[in-house]
Amino acid sequence: MISIQGLSKEFAVSGGNVAAIKGLDLEVAEGEFFVIVGASGSGKTTLLRCVAGLELPDKGTIRIAGQVVSSDNPPTSVPSQQRRLGMVFQSYAVWPHLTVYENVALPLAEGAQRVPRREVASRAREALRLVQLEEVADRSATLLSGGQQQRVALARAIAVNPRILLMDEPLSNLDARLREEVRGKIRELAKQLGATVLYVTHDQVEAMAMADRIALMQAGEFLQVGSPTELYRDPARVEVAEFFGLMNWLKGRVVQPGLAETPIGPLRFKGAAAPAGEVLLGFRPECVAILESASHAESNSFPAALRSSMFLGDQLVYHAAVGEQLFAGKCRTVAACSGGRLQLYIDPDDVMLFSAGKRVDQETAAARPSAAVRAAG
Amino acid sequence: MKQAVLRLPAFIGWRNQASPALMGLALAPIGVILVLVAVMLWVSFQRGLFGTPTAIYTLENYQTILSDPFLYRVLWNTAIFTLTTTCVALLTGLPIAWLAERTTIPGKTLIYAIMTLGLLIPGIYTAMGWTFIAHPRIGFLNRWLVDLFGLESAPINIATPIGMGFVQGLSLAAVAFILTAQMFRAMNPTLEEAAQVHGMSFVTILHRVTFPLALPGILAAVIYIVTIGVATFDIPAILGLGNRVYMLSTYIYIKVHPQGSGLPEYGITGAVGTFMIVVAALLTSWYGQVLRSGHRFEVVTGKGYRPALIKLGRWAVVGWLFIGLYAFVSKLLPLLLITYAALTPYFAPPSLEMMRQLSLVHFYNMDWELVLRGARNTATLVLVVPLLVLLFAFAISWLVVRSRSRARYALEFCAFLPQALPEVILAIGALLLALFVLREFVPLYGSVWLIAIVYVVARIAFATRALNGSLLQIHRELEEAAFVSGLSTLRTARRVLLPLLWPTLLSVWLWTALLVYRELTVAVFLGIHDNITFPAVIWSYWYAGGMNKASAVTLLMTAVLAPLIVAFWWFGRRSQVPT
Ligand SMILES: Nc1ncnc2c1ncn2[C@@H]1O[C@H](COP(=O)(O)OP(=O)(O)O)[C@@H](O)[C@H]1O
Ligand SMILES: [Mg+2]
To answer: Best interface-test mutation with B: which of A9, A71, A76, A81 has the largest number of B CBs within 10 A?
Structure first.
């Protein structure tokens, strides 16, 4: 549905140019909920604005439903008005001088699509019903709460029957509780409408909760594209692993297939053989298990001293030291802990190997950067 | 080539939304300004018949003015005049601003009303009124003092550089007030509170904290007033021309409109004008620097901070006496005397005897054909100019605020240019342009449209700044949301932008209309017969010695002005004023 090739965009700022996007490729299938996630300043908004036609790319081609909407060769740029999109802005951009109903109806009545006059009202009402704002339809848009304004923006975007729904951090201005509630509703609504969604956020939890697929963006480039589970469980790079959750890291050296020498002793791992050089071994806190007793001296089992713990209700996060090395772990209780001494166990299945920042214990990891292209096929 | 294709749209920021028409609208007035300056320079280097093959390019004009002792006398007059103006304006405006912004004085709305009215009532009213008060021959105050103390000659002479400076200062006190009030408002009171908490006395705080913090703002106000003072025409013309006391602006006037059989000396005018451009440009760039250095002191303040107000107690009475005196001396008394002069057959000090002679004779005798012609021209200007100003300023503002290109800084600078160019200069530039460049190709000389063009470019700077401010407040995503959801550029402007900008547009319209309505300088320089304006009718009566008739016309003009001022008060008081 969206197909982007070699997209680049620079901005002129005082003291030179900044490259906001550096040669991106992206394929989004019809009906897909695609999330672009990344730290602030990584170029997400710029990418979205290029798709919307609000920013003119320097290089590259953008196609929507097969039609070229923006290209540098030959120079083409279809005006925003004719791209038939819906967009929810970070500021919501709800027109303050209009009522809720008028906000939704204006694009229908006076937009490029020219919806027949008698259909305008019914379609606007229908959109407002979908976001549950029928009751406040005649109120001035500025009198609404943040969450309601966000829904007005959403209703306005879906009312025009867009080919693609673009959303730029639509939840970042809401408080935490509301955010969790709304993100479920947005995904539900998108699926109900069968909409193709390009969604931008900086919040990795939001990304994983909503996406069919995610692209992690950094400094104008995609680090990895894949499903939420792929990105979380099989990160192709150190940055990806760290972005989606806490990691424990150990420096080490592969001494034989499946075994690495580390400062806390030998550590087994499951993956394919790796070069016998310096590697970084990583595993997530929830993969650290606490053994009942230290009696049976298994491999990958280490005695540790509990240093701190934090009770968060649904889980308990603790830090424990193995020798000099501090590890984070997660469990439901540390009842097994007695006198501050623990026996930790790390499943070889959960250990990931990185060398020079890249994943090395999986053959798939090498092929990962082209995952986007694969999805297009 | 492809780069070029991509660059032009990039200038606009929204390649799809902005049209060449918009850029044309933005560049047209700026082009006019540059042309006016260029014509003046061009003429200043010529002798003979300008713009014809017989013209000689020479530095003679500059040599002539440099060796003219009369011009040095004029410069000296201008210096004294400007100095007096600045002192009077600041010593009146600054304390009132301080009272209104930093003390508990009651009736602050009324203070603002009085001072805004001060901006709206033309300086020529004050000047005419003060002629009746303190002119050496006819001024009633002088006559009373002479009779009372048996003096040989009149003790006060308003027709001197100091006297004119005093009148001009009264007129600009309102500007000083607005500028310094803004400064006091922007000042962070917690800085003073911090000094207080750490044990400094009121006087020490005033001296060590408040004053140093206020200094850049005050200096900026001083430069601004000096810039106006150096080039102002109307008050020196009303008070000085008849008495042969000349300032730079009136010197230019007599070079262009020589009395008797002399020929206009346009080359000299161009040279003096060029000199004034340089002075004005230097002052304006200095003003910009001071303003910028003032931002150094700006401390980010929270939204709802309440400035610490100084309790005045009984001193409030003194404050109000001061304000009342200002209002009386600068507005009320002059207006009263103008009314009196309009209703008496000849000017004599007010007395019971004169009260018996009150009549409407001047209204019967005035040249109604002339007055109506003036009214018609002014009406045309008031209808046309503000709309054009809004149109051009909107185009400039939109590009300056919304585009991403570095060219927008150049655009912003150019739009600020007319601020640096005194009206006298624009008027002379337009006169020379019409006479020697356009000539019979485009017969603009003597047409009301020539005046309209100058008015439009002269008011662009203020309008652009007011609109920039408002446009910045309107999140660009509000427009982008309209584009993405399919609204065309025009519809976006009509349905989203205009409704949101409406209050600013209205207040800019009103201000421009009021200033056009009362404008005298350009009208006098460019007006001949058909294109005389309402204020220029007053001027022509006055200059010809018909003071009472001039007063009668002034009264008529005020009758029309009053509802406009009320309208302004109703709609525009919350918005910016043209400083
Ligand atoms: N209009 C602009 N002018 C100059 N630089 C910009 C502009 N918009 C974005 N940038 C720069 O481009 C980079 C990416 O910005 P953006 O796309 O807004 O990031 P994100 O949305 O991921 O926070 C940043 O370095 C930002 O400073
Ligand atoms: Mg962003």
So the answer is: A81
Instruction: Print pLDDT tens along chain B (579 aa).
Output: 333 333 333 434 444 445 677 888 888 888 898 898 898 888 888 887 777 777 778 888 888 888 989 999 999 999 999 999 999 999 999 999 989 888 888 888 888 888 888 887 888 888 999 999 988 888 888 888 888 888 888 888 888 999 999 999 999 999 899 888 877 877 766 667 776 677 677 777 777 777 777 888 888 889 888 988 888 898 999 998 888 899 999 999 988 888 777 788 888 888 988 888 888 888 888 887 887 776 655 544 444 455 667 777 888 899 999 999 999 999 899 999 999 999 988 888 888 888 888 888 888 888 889 999 999 999 999 999 999 999 999 988 888 888 877 777 788 777 777 777 888 888 989 988 888 888 777 788 888 999 999 999 988 888 888 888 888 888 888 999 999 988 988 888 889 999 988 888 888 888 888 889 888 989 998 888 888 999 999 999 998 888 889 999 999 988 888 887 777 777 655 544 444
Give this prediction's pTM: 0.79
Q: Is B56 helix (H, G, I), strand (E, B) or coil?
A: strand
Type of residue found at B350 = P
The span from the CA of A50 to the CA of A72, in Å, is: 12
Spell out the residues 6+ positions from residue A136 whose beta carbon is closer than 8 angstroms to its own. Answer: A100, A144, A148
CA distances from A285 to A248, B26, B328, B441 (A): 7, 61, 81, 86
* Residues in chain B within 8 Å Cβ distance of A73: 2
Nearest CA to ligand 1 atom 8: A46
ipTM reported for the complex, 2 dp: 0.79
Residues A278/A350, Cβ–Cβ less than 8 Å: no
Tokens matching residue B543:
């200059």
For residue A128, CA distances in Å to A101, A102, A153, A220, B77 come to 8, 11, 10, 36, 72
Would you state the structure tokens that stand for residue B95, as one six-digit string? 């304390």
Kindly list the residues from chain A whose CB atom is less than 8 angstroms away from the CB atom of residue B491.
Answer: 110
